[in-house]
Amino acid sequence: MPLPSPPPVPGSVFRSRRAVLPEGERAADVLVRGGRIEAVAPHGSLHADTVTDLGSLVLLPGLVDSHVHVNEPGRTEWEGFDSATRAAAAGGVTTIVDMPLNSVPPTTTPEGLTAKRRAADGRVRVDVGFWGGAVPGNTAELEPLHRAGVFGFKGFLSPSGVEEFPHLEPADLERALAETARLDALALVHAEDPAVLDRAPLRPGRRYRDFLASRPGGAETAAVARLLDTARRTGARVHVLHVSSAAVLPLLARARADGVRVTAETCPHYLCLTAAEVPDGDTAFKCCPPIRDESNRERLWEALAAGEFAAVVSDHSPCTADLKLLDRGDFAAAWGGIASLQLGLAAVWTEARRRGHGLAEVVRWMSAGPAALAGLPAKGAIAPGRDADLVAFDPDAVFRVDPATLHHRNPVTPYAGRTLTGAVRTTWLRGRVVEPSTEPFGRLLTRPGEATP
Ligand SMILES: [Zn+2]
Protein backbone atom coordinates (compact mmCIF):
# COMPACT_ATOMS: atom_id res chain seq x y z
CA MET A 1 0.00 0.00 0.00
CA PRO A 2 1.44 3.42 -0.87
CA LEU A 3 2.25 5.72 2.01
CA PRO A 4 -0.43 8.38 2.52
CA SER A 5 0.74 11.69 1.13
CA PRO A 6 1.21 14.46 3.68
CA PRO A 7 -1.75 16.81 4.16
CA PRO A 8 -1.70 19.80 1.84
CA VAL A 9 -0.08 22.94 3.20
CA PRO A 10 -2.19 26.08 3.22
CA GLY A 11 -1.38 28.42 0.38
CA SER A 12 -0.57 27.84 -3.25
CA VAL A 13 2.45 26.37 -4.93
CA PHE A 14 4.16 27.58 -8.11
CA ARG A 15 6.19 24.76 -9.60
CA SER A 16 8.79 25.14 -12.32
CA ARG A 17 11.75 23.15 -13.61
CA ARG A 18 13.44 26.49 -14.11
CA ALA A 19 12.86 28.95 -11.27
CA VAL A 20 15.33 31.82 -11.20
CA LEU A 21 16.32 32.08 -7.53
CA PRO A 22 19.01 34.34 -6.01
CA GLU A 23 21.41 31.38 -6.08
CA GLY A 24 20.67 30.64 -9.75
CA GLU A 25 18.28 28.64 -11.87
CA ARG A 26 16.77 25.64 -10.04
CA ALA A 27 13.86 23.23 -10.30
CA ALA A 28 11.71 24.42 -7.42
CA ASP A 29 8.38 24.70 -5.67
CA VAL A 30 7.53 28.16 -4.44
CA LEU A 31 4.96 28.32 -1.65
CA VAL A 32 2.86 31.47 -1.58
CA ARG A 33 0.59 32.51 1.25
CA GLY A 34 -1.13 35.82 1.86
CA GLY A 35 0.58 37.34 -1.16
CA ARG A 36 4.07 36.54 0.10
CA ILE A 37 6.58 33.87 -0.65
CA GLU A 38 6.66 31.62 2.36
CA ALA A 39 9.11 28.96 1.26
CA VAL A 40 11.18 27.74 -1.66
CA ALA A 41 11.49 23.96 -1.70
CA PRO A 42 12.73 21.20 -4.02
CA HIS A 43 10.64 20.61 -7.14
CA GLY A 44 7.62 18.41 -6.47
CA SER A 45 8.10 18.34 -2.72
CA LEU A 46 5.19 20.52 -1.60
CA HIS A 47 1.55 19.54 -1.50
CA ALA A 48 -0.96 22.36 -1.56
CA ASP A 49 -4.59 22.79 -2.54
CA THR A 50 -3.53 24.86 -5.52
CA VAL A 51 -0.51 23.89 -7.55
CA THR A 52 0.37 25.91 -10.64
CA ASP A 53 2.74 23.67 -12.54
CA LEU A 54 4.62 25.69 -15.15
CA GLY A 55 6.46 22.67 -16.51
CA SER A 56 9.52 24.01 -18.23
CA LEU A 57 8.34 27.62 -18.48
CA VAL A 58 10.74 29.78 -16.49
CA LEU A 59 9.53 31.27 -13.21
CA LEU A 60 11.05 34.74 -12.78
CA PRO A 61 10.65 37.27 -10.01
CA GLY A 62 8.61 40.17 -11.37
CA LEU A 63 10.76 42.87 -12.92
CA VAL A 64 11.25 46.20 -11.20
CA ASP A 65 11.45 49.19 -13.52
CA SER A 66 12.69 52.19 -11.58
CA HIS A 67 12.64 54.53 -14.57
CA VAL A 68 9.16 55.08 -15.97
CA HIS A 69 7.51 58.35 -16.99
CA VAL A 70 3.78 57.89 -16.49
CA ASN A 71 2.89 61.58 -17.21
CA GLU A 72 -0.45 61.53 -15.34
CA PRO A 73 -1.98 63.91 -14.29
CA GLY A 74 -1.52 66.66 -16.82
CA ARG A 75 -0.17 64.78 -19.85
CA THR A 76 -2.25 61.65 -19.59
CA GLU A 77 -2.58 61.62 -23.37
CA TRP A 78 1.15 60.75 -23.40
CA GLU A 79 0.80 57.90 -20.89
CA GLY A 80 -1.41 57.24 -17.90
CA PHE A 81 -1.40 54.89 -14.91
CA ASP A 82 -3.93 52.52 -16.45
CA SER A 83 -2.12 52.09 -19.78
CA ALA A 84 1.39 52.14 -18.28
CA THR A 85 0.66 49.48 -15.69
CA ARG A 86 -1.16 47.27 -18.23
CA ALA A 87 1.93 47.47 -20.40
CA ALA A 88 4.15 46.76 -17.42
CA ALA A 89 2.23 43.62 -16.44
CA ALA A 90 2.22 42.39 -20.04
CA GLY A 91 5.99 42.84 -20.09
CA GLY A 92 6.62 41.00 -16.81
CA VAL A 93 7.19 44.19 -14.80
CA THR A 94 5.40 44.07 -11.43
CA THR A 95 6.77 47.26 -9.87
CA ILE A 96 7.44 50.63 -11.45
CA VAL A 97 8.84 53.77 -9.90
CA ASP A 98 7.44 56.84 -11.59
CA MET A 99 9.62 59.76 -12.62
CA PRO A 100 8.71 63.20 -11.25
CA LEU A 101 8.42 65.04 -14.54
CA ASN A 102 6.19 65.29 -17.58
CA SER A 103 3.14 65.11 -15.37
CA VAL A 104 1.55 68.43 -14.43
CA PRO A 105 2.14 69.24 -11.68
CA PRO A 106 5.56 67.60 -11.45
CA THR A 107 6.44 65.74 -8.23
CA THR A 108 8.51 68.60 -6.84
CA THR A 109 6.24 69.42 -3.88
CA PRO A 110 4.15 67.32 -1.46
CA GLU A 111 1.06 68.67 -3.26
CA GLY A 112 2.46 67.36 -6.53
CA LEU A 113 2.93 63.94 -4.92
CA THR A 114 -0.64 64.02 -3.61
CA ALA A 115 -1.90 64.81 -7.12
CA LYS A 116 0.09 61.85 -8.50
CA ARG A 117 -1.24 59.49 -5.87
CA ARG A 118 -4.79 60.64 -6.41
CA ALA A 119 -4.46 60.06 -10.15
CA ALA A 120 -2.97 56.59 -9.60
CA ASP A 121 -5.11 55.37 -6.74
CA GLY A 122 -7.25 52.37 -7.70
CA ARG A 123 -6.05 52.39 -11.30
CA VAL A 124 -2.73 50.57 -11.16
CA ARG A 125 -2.28 46.95 -12.20
CA VAL A 126 1.22 46.66 -10.77
CA ASP A 127 2.79 48.29 -7.72
CA VAL A 128 3.85 51.89 -8.18
CA GLY A 129 6.30 54.01 -6.22
CA PHE A 130 7.28 57.62 -6.87
CA TRP A 131 10.52 59.54 -7.22
CA GLY A 132 10.50 63.18 -6.15
CA GLY A 133 12.03 65.96 -8.21
CA ALA A 134 14.84 68.41 -7.40
CA VAL A 135 14.52 71.70 -9.30
CA PRO A 136 15.97 75.15 -8.64
CA GLY A 137 14.39 76.66 -5.54
CA ASN A 138 12.63 73.57 -4.14
CA THR A 139 15.30 72.43 -1.65
CA ALA A 140 12.89 73.08 1.23
CA GLU A 141 10.38 70.67 -0.34
CA LEU A 142 12.74 67.72 -0.36
CA GLU A 143 12.39 66.81 3.29
CA PRO A 144 8.56 66.84 3.31
CA LEU A 145 8.59 64.79 0.09
CA HIS A 146 11.07 62.38 1.66
CA ARG A 147 8.83 62.04 4.74
CA ALA A 148 5.83 61.48 2.46
CA GLY A 149 7.59 58.40 1.10
CA VAL A 150 9.23 59.20 -2.22
CA PHE A 151 12.14 56.86 -2.97
CA GLY A 152 14.67 59.59 -3.83
CA PHE A 153 15.03 62.68 -6.00
CA LYS A 154 15.69 63.23 -9.66
CA GLY A 155 17.35 66.31 -11.11
CA PHE A 156 18.55 67.37 -14.57
CA LEU A 157 21.87 68.99 -15.38
CA SER A 158 20.64 70.09 -18.84
CA PRO A 159 17.18 71.25 -19.97
CA SER A 160 14.60 68.53 -19.37
CA GLY A 161 12.35 69.28 -22.34
CA VAL A 162 9.46 70.62 -20.23
CA GLU A 163 9.42 74.09 -18.75
CA GLU A 164 7.85 73.15 -15.41
CA PHE A 165 10.90 71.03 -14.58
CA PRO A 166 13.95 73.31 -14.99
CA HIS A 167 17.48 71.97 -14.71
CA LEU A 168 19.95 72.48 -11.89
CA GLU A 169 22.78 74.95 -12.37
CA PRO A 170 25.96 74.09 -10.44
CA ALA A 171 24.89 76.05 -7.33
CA ASP A 172 21.42 74.41 -7.39
CA LEU A 173 23.01 70.99 -7.68
CA GLU A 174 25.25 71.73 -4.71
CA ARG A 175 22.24 72.75 -2.60
CA ALA A 176 20.15 69.77 -3.70
CA LEU A 177 22.90 67.23 -3.02
CA ALA A 178 23.73 68.77 0.36
CA GLU A 179 20.08 68.26 1.28
CA THR A 180 19.77 64.70 -0.09
CA ALA A 181 22.98 63.85 1.78
CA ARG A 182 21.47 65.22 5.00
CA LEU A 183 18.34 63.13 4.42
CA ASP A 184 20.42 60.15 3.24
CA ALA A 185 18.16 60.06 0.18
CA LEU A 186 19.28 58.87 -3.23
CA ALA A 187 19.83 61.59 -5.86
CA LEU A 188 19.20 60.50 -9.47
CA VAL A 189 20.71 62.63 -12.18
CA HIS A 190 20.20 63.12 -15.89
CA ALA A 191 23.82 63.83 -16.74
CA GLU A 192 24.40 65.83 -19.92
CA ASP A 193 26.30 69.10 -19.72
CA PRO A 194 24.40 72.08 -21.18
CA ALA A 195 27.56 73.97 -22.19
CA VAL A 196 28.85 70.99 -24.18
CA LEU A 197 25.43 70.56 -25.79
CA ASP A 198 25.35 74.27 -26.70
CA ARG A 199 28.73 74.01 -28.39
CA ALA A 200 27.76 70.94 -30.40
CA PRO A 201 26.63 71.45 -34.00
CA LEU A 202 22.86 71.58 -34.29
CA ARG A 203 21.68 70.64 -37.76
CA PRO A 204 17.93 70.07 -37.80
CA GLY A 205 16.53 67.51 -40.17
CA ARG A 206 16.06 63.83 -40.87
CA ARG A 207 19.63 62.63 -40.66
CA TYR A 208 20.30 60.59 -37.52
CA ARG A 209 24.02 61.34 -37.83
CA ASP A 210 23.30 65.05 -37.39
CA PHE A 211 21.19 64.45 -34.31
CA LEU A 212 23.89 62.22 -32.83
CA ALA A 213 26.50 64.96 -33.37
CA SER A 214 24.28 67.39 -31.45
CA ARG A 215 24.37 65.18 -28.30
CA PRO A 216 28.03 64.11 -28.07
CA GLY A 217 29.29 61.63 -25.48
CA GLY A 218 31.44 64.44 -24.13
CA ALA A 219 28.29 66.04 -22.71
CA GLU A 220 27.78 62.97 -20.53
CA THR A 221 31.41 62.84 -19.46
CA ALA A 222 31.47 66.52 -18.47
CA ALA A 223 28.21 66.29 -16.54
CA VAL A 224 29.23 63.10 -14.74
CA ALA A 225 32.56 64.68 -13.78
CA ARG A 226 30.74 67.63 -12.25
CA LEU A 227 28.23 65.38 -10.51
CA LEU A 228 31.00 63.25 -9.00
CA ASP A 229 32.83 66.33 -7.83
CA THR A 230 29.70 67.62 -6.08
CA ALA A 231 28.92 64.19 -4.65
CA ARG A 232 32.44 63.97 -3.26
CA ARG A 233 32.10 67.36 -1.55
CA THR A 234 28.60 66.83 -0.16
CA GLY A 235 28.79 63.11 0.63
CA ALA A 236 25.57 62.54 -1.33
CA ARG A 237 24.52 59.16 -2.70
CA VAL A 238 24.13 59.65 -6.42
CA HIS A 239 22.88 57.59 -9.33
CA VAL A 240 23.59 58.33 -12.98
CA LEU A 241 20.47 57.73 -15.04
CA HIS A 242 20.45 56.19 -18.53
CA VAL A 243 24.18 56.01 -19.27
CA SER A 244 24.51 56.00 -23.03
CA SER A 245 28.21 56.82 -23.49
CA ALA A 246 30.58 54.15 -22.23
CA ALA A 247 33.21 56.87 -21.78
CA VAL A 248 31.68 57.74 -18.39
CA LEU A 249 32.38 54.27 -16.98
CA PRO A 250 36.06 54.82 -16.04
CA LEU A 251 35.06 58.02 -14.21
CA LEU A 252 32.49 56.12 -12.20
CA ALA A 253 34.94 53.34 -11.37
CA ARG A 254 37.59 55.80 -10.19
CA ALA A 255 35.11 57.73 -8.05
CA ARG A 256 33.84 54.51 -6.49
CA ALA A 257 37.38 53.47 -5.67
CA ASP A 258 37.74 56.85 -3.93
CA GLY A 259 34.68 56.13 -1.79
CA VAL A 260 32.12 58.22 -3.70
CA ARG A 261 28.73 56.54 -3.39
CA VAL A 262 27.72 56.36 -7.03
CA THR A 263 25.71 53.87 -9.07
CA ALA A 264 24.58 53.91 -12.68
CA GLU A 265 21.99 52.39 -14.96
CA THR A 266 21.66 51.81 -18.68
CA CYS A 267 18.61 51.04 -20.81
CA PRO A 268 17.47 48.35 -23.25
CA HIS A 269 17.77 50.70 -26.25
CA TYR A 270 21.45 51.43 -25.60
CA LEU A 271 22.13 47.70 -25.29
CA CYS A 272 20.01 46.55 -28.20
CA LEU A 273 20.11 49.28 -30.86
CA THR A 274 22.92 51.10 -32.65
CA ALA A 275 23.20 54.40 -34.50
CA ALA A 276 23.95 52.71 -37.82
CA GLU A 277 20.60 50.96 -37.87
CA VAL A 278 18.50 54.06 -37.11
CA PRO A 279 16.73 54.95 -40.36
CA ASP A 280 16.94 58.63 -41.23
CA GLY A 281 13.68 60.32 -40.28
CA ASP A 282 12.59 57.56 -37.86
CA THR A 283 12.17 59.63 -34.73
CA ALA A 284 10.80 56.64 -32.78
CA PHE A 285 14.52 56.11 -32.09
CA LYS A 286 15.08 59.58 -30.66
CA CYS A 287 16.06 59.73 -27.01
CA CYS A 288 18.45 61.82 -24.92
CA PRO A 289 21.20 60.88 -24.46
CA PRO A 290 21.10 59.21 -27.88
CA ILE A 291 21.69 55.68 -29.15
CA ARG A 292 25.38 55.60 -30.12
CA ASP A 293 27.63 53.45 -32.28
CA GLU A 294 28.35 49.74 -32.20
CA SER A 295 31.72 49.89 -30.43
CA ASN A 296 30.16 51.98 -27.67
CA ARG A 297 27.39 49.42 -27.31
CA GLU A 298 29.96 46.64 -26.96
CA ARG A 299 31.61 48.54 -24.13
CA LEU A 300 28.25 48.94 -22.38
CA TRP A 301 27.79 45.17 -22.55
CA GLU A 302 31.27 44.56 -21.16
CA ALA A 303 30.51 46.90 -18.27
CA LEU A 304 27.16 45.23 -17.66
CA ALA A 305 28.77 41.81 -17.60
CA ALA A 306 31.42 43.12 -15.19
CA GLY A 307 28.76 44.32 -12.76
CA GLU A 308 29.37 48.03 -13.32
CA PHE A 309 25.68 48.82 -13.78
CA ALA A 310 23.27 48.62 -10.86
CA ALA A 311 20.27 48.26 -13.13
CA VAL A 312 18.88 48.02 -16.64
CA VAL A 313 15.63 49.97 -16.75
CA SER A 314 13.41 51.21 -19.55
CA ASP A 315 13.40 55.02 -19.28
CA HIS A 316 9.95 54.55 -20.76
CA SER A 317 9.26 58.12 -21.88
CA PRO A 318 6.40 58.26 -24.35
CA CYS A 319 4.51 61.13 -25.91
CA THR A 320 1.66 61.41 -28.37
CA ALA A 321 2.46 60.22 -31.87
CA ASP A 322 2.15 63.73 -33.32
CA LEU A 323 4.95 65.06 -31.05
CA LYS A 324 7.27 62.44 -32.53
CA LEU A 325 6.81 64.26 -35.87
CA LEU A 326 6.99 60.93 -37.67
CA ASP A 327 5.74 62.50 -40.90
CA ARG A 328 8.47 65.15 -40.98
CA GLY A 329 11.09 63.02 -39.30
CA ASP A 330 12.94 66.01 -37.86
CA PHE A 331 15.18 64.63 -35.12
CA ALA A 332 15.94 68.05 -33.66
CA ALA A 333 12.28 69.02 -33.22
CA ALA A 334 10.72 65.66 -32.26
CA TRP A 335 10.10 64.71 -28.62
CA GLY A 336 12.97 62.64 -27.25
CA GLY A 337 11.94 59.48 -25.47
CA ILE A 338 11.58 55.78 -26.16
CA ALA A 339 8.59 53.78 -25.02
CA SER A 340 9.60 50.24 -24.13
CA LEU A 341 8.02 49.29 -20.82
CA GLN A 342 6.33 46.25 -22.34
CA LEU A 343 9.30 45.18 -24.46
CA GLY A 344 12.34 45.70 -22.23
CA LEU A 345 12.60 42.12 -21.00
CA ALA A 346 12.34 40.55 -24.44
CA ALA A 347 14.72 43.11 -25.97
CA VAL A 348 17.40 42.59 -23.33
CA TRP A 349 16.93 38.81 -23.23
CA THR A 350 17.25 38.56 -27.03
CA GLU A 351 20.60 40.34 -26.93
CA ALA A 352 21.81 38.80 -23.65
CA ARG A 353 21.19 35.26 -24.81
CA ARG A 354 23.03 35.84 -28.06
CA ARG A 355 26.00 36.88 -25.93
CA GLY A 356 25.86 33.84 -23.67
CA HIS A 357 24.26 35.44 -20.62
CA GLY A 358 21.67 33.56 -18.59
CA LEU A 359 18.33 34.59 -17.16
CA ALA A 360 19.84 34.80 -13.67
CA GLU A 361 21.91 37.72 -14.93
CA VAL A 362 18.93 39.36 -16.60
CA VAL A 363 17.07 39.07 -13.29
CA ARG A 364 19.99 40.71 -11.50
CA TRP A 365 19.96 43.61 -13.97
CA MET A 366 16.20 44.08 -14.27
CA SER A 367 14.69 42.91 -10.98
CA ALA A 368 17.09 42.52 -8.04
CA GLY A 369 19.25 45.47 -9.13
CA PRO A 370 16.55 48.11 -9.51
CA ALA A 371 14.78 46.82 -6.35
CA ALA A 372 17.98 47.39 -4.39
CA LEU A 373 18.57 50.74 -6.06
CA ALA A 374 15.13 52.10 -5.15
CA GLY A 375 15.19 50.44 -1.73
CA LEU A 376 12.39 47.90 -2.13
CA PRO A 377 13.28 44.98 0.17
CA ALA A 378 10.05 43.09 -0.59
CA LYS A 379 10.75 43.03 -4.34
CA GLY A 380 13.34 41.66 -6.73
CA ALA A 381 13.74 38.00 -5.77
CA ILE A 382 12.02 34.66 -5.40
CA ALA A 383 12.87 34.19 -1.74
CA PRO A 384 10.98 33.70 1.54
CA GLY A 385 9.51 36.94 2.87
CA ARG A 386 9.36 38.67 -0.52
CA ASP A 387 6.14 39.62 -2.27
CA ALA A 388 4.92 36.85 -4.57
CA ASP A 389 5.44 38.94 -7.71
CA LEU A 390 6.08 36.27 -10.32
CA VAL A 391 6.31 35.84 -14.05
CA ALA A 392 5.94 32.75 -16.25
CA PHE A 393 8.36 33.32 -19.10
CA ASP A 394 8.95 31.34 -22.26
CA PRO A 395 12.60 32.03 -23.08
CA ASP A 396 12.42 30.37 -26.49
CA ALA A 397 9.31 32.00 -27.92
CA VAL A 398 10.10 34.12 -30.94
CA PHE A 399 7.83 36.96 -32.00
CA ARG A 400 7.77 39.91 -34.30
CA VAL A 401 6.98 43.22 -32.56
CA ASP A 402 3.58 44.43 -33.70
CA PRO A 403 2.84 47.87 -32.22
CA ALA A 404 -0.87 46.95 -32.18
CA THR A 405 -0.17 44.47 -29.36
CA LEU A 406 1.35 47.13 -27.09
CA HIS A 407 -0.65 48.49 -24.18
CA HIS A 408 1.34 51.73 -24.14
CA ARG A 409 -1.11 54.59 -24.72
CA ASN A 410 0.88 55.57 -27.82
CA PRO A 411 2.27 52.44 -29.43
CA VAL A 412 5.17 54.16 -31.18
CA THR A 413 8.26 52.00 -30.83
CA PRO A 414 11.68 51.65 -32.44
CA TYR A 415 11.29 47.89 -32.01
CA ALA A 416 8.39 47.74 -34.49
CA GLY A 417 8.91 44.84 -36.89
CA ARG A 418 11.89 43.45 -35.00
CA THR A 419 12.09 39.81 -34.09
CA LEU A 420 12.59 39.30 -30.37
CA THR A 421 12.99 36.20 -28.24
CA GLY A 422 11.20 35.57 -24.96
CA ALA A 423 7.55 35.97 -24.13
CA VAL A 424 5.75 36.67 -20.86
CA ARG A 425 2.93 34.14 -20.45
CA THR A 426 1.45 35.11 -17.06
CA THR A 427 2.21 37.77 -14.47
CA TRP A 428 1.24 37.47 -10.80
CA LEU A 429 1.23 40.33 -8.35
CA ARG A 430 1.31 39.18 -4.71
CA GLY A 431 0.22 35.74 -5.88
CA ARG A 432 -2.76 36.92 -7.97
CA VAL A 433 -2.87 36.78 -11.75
CA VAL A 434 -2.85 40.22 -13.34
CA GLU A 435 -5.47 40.16 -16.08
CA PRO A 436 -6.56 43.03 -18.28
CA SER A 437 -10.23 42.41 -17.53
CA THR A 438 -10.15 42.31 -13.72
CA GLU A 439 -10.20 45.21 -11.28
CA PRO A 440 -6.73 46.62 -10.76
CA PHE A 441 -5.18 45.65 -7.44
CA GLY A 442 -1.72 47.19 -7.63
CA ARG A 443 -0.61 49.24 -4.64
CA LEU A 444 0.98 52.62 -4.25
CA LEU A 445 4.29 52.14 -2.48
CA THR A 446 6.09 54.38 -0.03
CA ARG A 447 9.72 54.20 0.91
CA PRO A 448 10.03 51.57 3.67
CA GLY A 449 10.16 53.23 7.06
CA GLU A 450 7.67 55.92 6.14
CA ALA A 451 4.04 55.60 7.12
CA THR A 452 1.52 55.32 4.29
CA PRO A 453 0.05 58.80 3.94
ZN1 LIG B 1 13.78 59.47 -18.07
Could you give a quick summary of the protein structure above?
By secondary structure, the chain is α/β, with parallel strands linked by helices. Helices cover 28% and strands 23% of the residues. It has helices at 81-90, 110-120, 139-147, 170-183, 194-199, 208-214, 217-234, 249-257, 268-272, 294-305, 344-354, 359-374; strands at residues 9-21, 24-33, 36-42, 48-53, 58-61, 63-68, 93-98, 127-130, 132-133, 153-156, 186-190, 237-240, 262-266, 311-312, 390-400, 419-429, 432-433.
Task: Give the arrangement of secondary structure elements.
Blueprint: E1 9-21, E2 24-33, E3 36-42, E4 48-53, E5 58-61, E6 63-68, H1 81-90, E7 93-98, H2 110-120, E8 127-130, E9 132-133, H3 139-147, E10 153-156, H4 170-183, E11 186-190, H5 194-199, H6 208-214, H7 217-234, E12 237-240, H8 249-257, E13 262-266, H9 268-272, H10 294-305, E14 311-312, H11 344-354, H12 359-374, E15 390-400, E16 419-429, E17 432-433
Parallel strand pairs: 1-4, 1-5, 6-7, 7-8, 9-10, 10-11, 11-12, 12-13, 13-14
Antiparallel strand pairs: 1-2, 2-3, 5-15, 15-16, 16-17
Helix pairs in contact: 3-4, 4-7
Zinc ion binds at residues 67, 69, 99, 315, 317.
